Amino acid sequence: MIKILVDAMGGDNAPQATVAGAVLASRQDKELYIILTGRKDAVQAELDKHKYDKSRFEIVDCPDVIDMNDVPTEAVKKKGSSLIQGFWLLKKQDDINALVTAGSTGAMIAGGQLILGRIRGVKRPALCAAIPNSRGGVTLLNDCGANAECKIEMLCQFAILASAYAKAGFNIQNPKVGLLNNGAEEHKGDPLRQQTYQCLNKLNGINFAGNAEGRDIMLGDFDVVVADGFSGNVALKSMEGCGKLILGVMKKEFSSSLSSKIGYLFMRKAIKRMRGQLDFDKVGGALLLGLKKPVIKSHGSSKPETIANSIKNAATVHRNALIPAIEQLLEGSGLDQLSEIINVGE
Amino acid sequence: MIKILVDAMGGDNAPQATVAGAVLASRQDKELYIILTGRKDAVQAELDKHKYDKSRFEIVDCPDVIDMNDVPTEAVKKKGSSLIQGFWLLKKQDDINALVTAGSTGAMIAGGQLILGRIRGVKRPALCAAIPNSRGGVTLLNDCGANAECKIEMLCQFAILASAYAKAGFNIQNPKVGLLNNGAEEHKGDPLRQQTYQCLNKLNGINFAGNAEGRDIMLGDFDVVVADGFSGNVALKSMEGCGKLILGVMKKEFSSSLSSKIGYLFMRKAIKRMRGQLDFDKVGGALLLGLKKPVIKSHGSSKPETIANSIKNAATVHRNALIPAIEQLLEGSGLDQLSEIINVGE
To answer: What is the mean pLDDT of each run of 10 residues along chain B (346 residues)?
Structure first.
């Protein structure tokens, strides 16, 4: 049995979408046991709208909700909130395996660090998004927003964390790692990038393949792209914006004339397949890597399918032993022996 | 008469595309006088393929060509090359108004700074790209690659430079300026962003509207988005990659079945309009802002139409007196009185 906590009150469409998503996931995977944190009455009312296996669901009553305007460090103190209560349960109960939330990213990162805690040796947790790529798979972008300022050692650890995730989450053997930079050549970028390049080149167990440009996230042959949380966030949101603009223009143009509308009827299936391939949410959320258990951030506007995908993702990385894999990769990486480069750079 | 220098040997398709583009531009704008720099025989041979107005064309023979592998500071010394010779002519001859190249970006930036020179008071030139947005217009992203490391004063100047360009190049009155950041709220980002936010807020003559996220470049209502050259470059290339991926998937899907192919026939016009709206090259190149005369970088893979658009863009900003507008905006900005914020931050 895999026990997964779902923050039932997190996200724009909670608790409807979160509960519906949890029920959906439980139907797809009979090993799942779901613990919903939230206002008991509201959550139960949503559950009652569905046919669900009562022996695999549990509600933990949490009267509080974290507001998107709460400062993360204050939010962490709201022990009665669905998210923070979830983190305490995750920390204290060994048999709970993972947490999924569509709530505040800041509160999640703070709760993850301050309550659940980091894997031994990890400097900072990083938010890792799975982005659809031209090969029909995904490219992991790590960090995409947890750490605006980064140091060499952090970027190297991001490479290790995401490499383990690529294997445990997507069955990618020997994942190719790129360093997000403003050009492909070795000397490119600021001193942080130049020194991180040297360090990544020397790490054991990491298949470092050089610098990645922004376009390589979706078009290149990297499985992992390492970034500081600032430029990673800019990249992620720039791609999302571009995707939305194109799909919006497409929608407008495809209904702009009778001829287009007729054409659309013939192309419906192709357009649906296309949207499927380009769906940023298909993987289900960004994984906050580096914590003692898997914690997944689902999009704030998550629909039931998105939540279900996030739960599925959590179950997959637990099954494939992501956390022990990270510990092992970290220990064998030799990162601690690279202090010469790291200390000069910092 | 507007005299524009065109680096006939720059870019993947030179000199065919550059010469054809110059001829195209000269037909669209009868005021243009084009000076082509490059290997005389090769350039003349290309010119002879077209019907062109001999009284408005001139070739300056340049035996050398800058290789894309040349280090910029070395490339600048190649005085006999089409690009560097162009910069010397631009500097020495008052009646030459602008330069267009599809060659090496690094060599262009080096040549611009070391040969042509900056406008008085400008710390560093910045590369400003015009990106198609959801309003059917463009958002100017400045800097998108000239300066990997930036300081507060530079970012503030980038806002001033691009605001002047928005008016002179695109007739946008009172352009809305955003600061590229990892969130919309005022406190977001690293210290550089936080302090630049305060500075931009106090600048005269700049319509600063707060932080812009990556998605706001294409979807938001900003006319100018200010970025350091590292994250600006990441954003630009991430959007390009996303656009290319979607158009690629679309192409594949639209020919995937008989039904799709029939649909495509009905939608041809809509798809063409769509591609037109999303064309990153329609504006014609990125402007290297902050130099004494307009210098435009056209895409390395520029076709004749792209080169013609870049030449047209150069003519437009010259006609609308971009350089004096920058000088005026810079002088009236009060940036030099913000040394308190700037010195604390740097």
So the answer is: 97 95 98 98 97 97 84 86 96 98 94 96 96 93 95 97 97 97 92 96 96 96 97 96 87 82 82 78 87 96 94 97 98 85 63
Chain A, 115 to 154: residues with Cβ < 8 Å from chain B are 132-134, 145, 148-149
Q: Are B238 and A214 in contact (CB under 8 A)?
A: yes
* DSSP conformation class of B114: I
Q: Is A178 on the interface with B (CB under 8 A)?
A: no
Query: Residue B253 gets which letter from DSSP?
Result: H
This model of the complex carries an ipTM of 0.92
Contact B231 A230 (CB under 8 A): yes
Task: Kindly tell me the sign of the dihedral angle through the C-alpha atoms of B293, B299, B304, B309.
Answer: negative
If you write DSSP's letter for every residue of A70-88 in order, what string do you get? S-HHHHTT-TTBHHHHHHH
Amino acid type, A140: L
Backbone dihedral region for residue B210 (phi beyond 0: left; psi -120 to 50: alpha; all else: beta): left
Q: Closest-CA residue in chain B for A145? A: B182
Q: In what order do the strands lie in the sheet with B32-38?
A: B57-61, B32-38, B2-7, B96-101, B295-297, B286-289, B126-132, B138-142, B224-226, B176-180, B207-212
Please answer yes or no on whether B242 and A243 come within 8 Å at the CB atom.
Answer: yes
* Residues ≥6 apart with Cβ < 8 Å to A337: none
Instruction: Quote the pLDDT of residue A345.
Output: 54
Non-local (6+) Cβ contacts of A54 within 8 A are none
Q: Do A270 and B253 touch (CB under 8 A)?
A: yes
Q: State the pLDDT at residue B344.
A: 60
Which residues have a Cβ under 8 Å from the Cβ of B298 and sit 6 or more positions away?
B10, B11, B100, B101, B102, B284, B285, B306, B307, B309, B310
- Of all residues in chain B, the one with the smallest CA distance to A248 is B134
Q: Is B214–A236 a contact, with Cβ atoms under 8 angstroms apart?
A: yes
Among B194, B222, B234, pick the best mutation site for testing chain A contact (most A Cβ within 10 A). B234
| Residue whose entry in the numeric block shows the structure tokens 């936080």 | B194
Cross-chain CB nearest to A263 (options B216, B217, B267): B267
b or e along A224-248 (b: 16 or more beta carbons within 10 Å of the residue's beta carbon)?
bbbbbbbbbbbbbbbbbbbbbbbee
B319 interface with A at CB cutoff 8 Å: no
Q: What is the 3-state secondary structure (H, E, C) of A120-152?
A: CCCCCCEEEEEEECCCCCEEEEECCCCCCCCCH
Yes or no, beta carbons of B214 and A243 under 8 Å apart: no
Partners of residue A236 in chain B, C-beta under 8 Å: 214, 238
Read off the pLDDT of residues A198-243 as tens digits, 9 standing for 90 and up.
999 999 999 999 999 999 999 999 999 999 999 999 999 999 999 9
Beta carbons of A238 and B233 less than 8 Å apart:
no
What does residue B271 show for φ and ψ, rounded to 5 degrees?
-65, -35
Interchain CB contact of B279 with A (< 8 Å): no
* Cross-chain residue pair B236–A246, CB shorter than 8 Å: no
Q: Which helix (H) or strand (E) holds B152?
A: helix B152-170
Identify the segments of chain A with pLDDT beneath 70.
Answer: 343-346
Query: What backbone torsions phi and psi does residue A41 show, to the nearest 5 degrees?
Result: -60, -50
pLDDT of residue A280: 74
Other CB atoms within 10 Å distance of the CB of residue A140? 30
Residues of A in contact with B219 (CB under 8 A): 241, 244-245
B 189-228 → A contacts, CB under 8 A: 189-190, 193, 213-220, 227
